[in-house]
Amino acid sequence: MSNRAVTYGGVLLAAGVGYYFYQAGGDPKVAQKKAEADATKISNDIQKQLPGSGKEAQKDAEVAGQQISSKVNELARDAKSEANKVDAKLDQYRKDAGQQLDSAAKSAQKNTNAAIDSFDKNVTEGAEKAKKGVSSWFGGSK
């Protein structure tokens, strides 16, 4: 049962972080500020509802705000790390694609040159045969 609770808690936390990143347009600093503002607002609302716990509730809210802030910072670092990994993979894919294109271009050039050489050889042989045939009409021995 506790495993399920941890899973649901993680999903809710991820959804909350995603919500703040979405609202902030992907800027982690803005998302952090919004999360802190919301945490402060929620703690103030809770503080108003608790009788006689003004200073204690305020301290608890500050601790909760700091915990939320540290969690948002941690998630932002993780997101940046993942983004850097994705960028590295994309760079590797670009390099691999470039190498494959260079290889294909060299292969195509090699095949084209071989075809041109073959064509030139056939034309030269055909020209020599035609020259011999024409020379024989006029009495040439070549």
UniProtKB/TrEMBL annotation:
Chain segments annotated as coiled-coil in the UniProt record: none
Annotated region described as Disordered, given as residue ranges: 43-68, 97-142
Keywords: Membrane, Transmembrane, Transmembrane helix
Biased composition regions of type Basic and acidic residues, renumbered to the chain: 118-131
Bias (Polar residues) ranges: 100-115
Membrane-spanning segments: 6-22
Entry protein name: Calcofluor white hypersensitive protein
Species of the source: Zasmidium cellare ATCC 36951
